[in-house]
Specification:
The complex is a heterodimer of chains A (254) and B (332). Chain A is an alpha/beta fold. Chain A contains 9 helices and 10 strands. Chain A has 2 domains: 169 residues, 3-Layer(aba) Sandwich (Rossmann fold), CATH 3.40.50.300; 75 residues, no CATH class. The two termini of chain B are 29 Å apart. Classes of the chains: A alpha/beta (254), B mainly alpha (332). At the A-B interface, helix 2 and helix 3 of A face helix 6, helix 7 and helix 8 of B.
């Protein structure tokens, strides 16, 4: 159905066990360029664990992960990031004492680390400064570049979280609840940002805000207790009786 | 008022003072200041780990002591070694041990890291303390100081206290400037990122272990420079140089001076040494000067309680306190 070449990330039967608990059970997802693939599920369904396994932050128990046609299952996280896999965190994970600009410049520095060059000031590195400016522009934070990151509002910190991810120029984005704790206006801004990011990126979006998910997602995967119960286009997922029973019915109450 | 003025003025004044100091004094105070400047280099090397990378090591004296022992053991018994190979060799010994210790200890974090670095330092301590390798508990003398000569022409006479003073001052300035430049570089910024948020650095694509190992090895090498200088200065080394007391003392210097700032390490080394000298002064403390460690310990506890950011953080602490007071006054 979809062009295999445009699939930037393919996960097959990904499984992660913590002792006796199977947090993620044989989950397969495909991420295609130009698409937002949302993963939804109740708390504890294994969504964040899935992102952690895909990004290499925690080890995989079974299954395989393929990134841009390469098998990266055994790769550590930094190597996957170097190969074009970016992620954001559910709990804001920034460098609070640095300026907003330096937050992005530092992550962008990963593209050309040059650690042996000890005599040149990092602030003159043309590659990372250009990537940082571009990422801030894209995330709508250019006006905040000189602020200390820790003093930003919650919504701006979430934007910075995305900007830091973009600064490394990834092809695949794994976004863990970018809308968490955001107000109405901030949510709108973030959603238009996400829609704009589709071009050139394959995006995995874990999100609790159902309205938002159904507005921006091209595909939706529903997880319950670590396993996938449905994976399809939004209209089909919405109509799926099993999904309604297991998930949507409960969450709509919120 | 230009807020940057003190940032330039104070270092220039301190350097000028250290440069003219030997004109005003000789003997004890000259040697004392030489020793303190060596300790400042040692403290700066630990600051690269603790302040810049966020790695608290309690075994840093091992690298200081190993280079000092290497300096003595590699020197011929009745002749002068050339400093041109002895210094790199001594530093290499420390750096190699640091590389090995770092490769194993950096897999742990926090308290475990502190304990593992301590264990490796104690291992080195007992090897020197309990074997005949370096004269056992008695230590060992450096009979002839290394020479700095080119084609038979002596450039620097390390045996003269005033010459050694300027050599040590030069080393201190070089190490300081090196670290200032290094911490501004991409490598230095990556260390700052690791200190603040290692998880994010890995997510961005940095193999943080390699950075930490490089920093650890570099810190060991710089501690080795201090160890070389102290062996040349004293002409004698003993196992206590590698003991955990020494590792603790250099950590206290950083805490006292203020972590996260290079000048804090230097200020801490001077303050620590001066406090130690002061509390040992029997004209003031009489018989009680025997218990100088008690007074020093009390002072450090008080300073940690009163100055959470160390001496170097006092101006900022004072400004914050005044701003709070002014704000409070406005409310009332």
């Amino acid at each position: 159905m979809r062009d295999a070449a445009a699939l930037l990330l393919r996960a097959r039967d990904v499984t992660r066990r913590f002792g006796g608990l199977t947090a993620v059970s044989e989950v397969s997802v495909d991420l295609a360029e130009g698409e937002i693939h949302a993963v939804i599920g109740t708390n504890g369904a294994g969504k964040s664990t899935l992102i952690n396994v895909l990004s290499g932050e925690i080890a995989i128990t079974g299954g395989s992960v393929e990134l841009l046609g390469q098998d990266v299952t055994a790769w550590p996280q930094p190597r996957r990031a170097q190969a074009g896999l970016g992620r954001s965190y559910q709990r804001t994970t920034i460098f609070p004492r640095f300026t907003v600009f330096e937050n992005c410049r530092l992550t962008a520095q990963a593209m050309r680390e040059a650690p042996w060059n000890w005599w040149t000031s990092a602030s003159t590195c043309p590659i990372s400064t250009a990537a940082a400016s571009e990422a801030l522009e894209r995330a709508g934070l250019s006006g905040r570049a000189d602020r200390i990151a820790g003093t930003l509002s919650h919504g701006e910190k979430r934007q910075l979280e995305i900007a830091m991810c973009l600064a490394t120029r990834p092809r695949v984005l794994l976004l863990d609840e970018p809308l968490a704790g955001m107000g109405q206006e901030e949510t709108e801004r973030m959603l238009s940002l996400l829609a704009g990011l589709k071009t050139g990126h394959a995006i995995l979006l874990v999100e609790h805000d159902m309205d938002a998910v159904f507005r921006v997602a091209d595909r939706i995967t529903v997880m319950v207790n670590g396993a996938v119960i449905a994976s399809d286009v939004p209209a089909a997922v919405r109509a799926d009786p099993e999904v309604q029973l297991a998930y949507l019915g409960e969450v709509d109450v919120h | 008022m230009d807020i940057r003025a003190p940032r330039v003025l104070i270092p220039v004044l301190v350097i000028a003072l250290l440069v003219v100091f030997p004109l005003a004094t000789t003997g004890f105070y000259l040697e004392f200041t030489t020793k303190v400047m060596i300790l400042a280099i040692f403290a700066l090397s630990l600051e690269l780990l603790v302040g810049a990378t966020g790695l608290v090591s309690l075994g840093h004296a091992a690298f200081y002591g190993i280079a000092a022992y290497a300096t003595v053991l590699l020197s011929p018994k009745y002749g002068a070694a050339s400093a041109f190979w002895l210094l790199p060799a001594a530093i290499a010994c420390s750096a190699l041990y640091a590389l090995a210790v770092g490769a194993l200890s950096l897999r742990t974090k926090g308290v475990y890291f502190i304990m593992v670095t301590l264990a490796f330092a104690q291992m080195a301590y007992y090897v020197i303390h309990d074997t005949e390798l370096g004269g056992g508990t008695d230590g060992i003398y450096l009979n002839v100081k290394p020479e700095v000569a080119l084609f038979g022409w002596k450039l620097v006479e390390l045996g003269k206290p005033v010459v050694l003073y300027y050599v040590v001052l030069g080393c201190l300035l070089l190490v300081f400037v090196f670290l200032v430049v290094l911490l501004r570089s991409r490598f230095g910024r990556a260390l700052a990122g690791i200190k603040d948020n290692e998880q994010r650095m890995r997510a961005a694509g940095f193999s943080t272990f390699r950075y930490k190992l490089t920093a650890f090895t570099l810190a060991g090498a710089l501690a080795g420079l201090a160890g070389f200088l102290v062996a040349v200065k004293d002409g004698f080394v003993n196992p206590e140089m590698l003991s955990w007391h020494e590792s603790g003392a250099v950590l206290l210097m950083l805490i006292l001076g203020g972590m996260g700032r290079l000048s804090g390490a230097v200020l801490g080394a001077f303050t620590f040494a001066l406090l130690q000298l002061f509390f040992q002064w029997d004209a003031v403390f009489g018989n009680f000067s025997k218990h100088w460690q008690l007074l020093l310990g009390g002072t450090i506890i008080a300073s940690v309680a009163l100055m959470p950011n160390g001496l170097i953080g006092l101006p900022a602490q004072w400004r914050a306190w005044r701003a709070r007071k002014l704000a409070g006054g406005a409310d009332a």
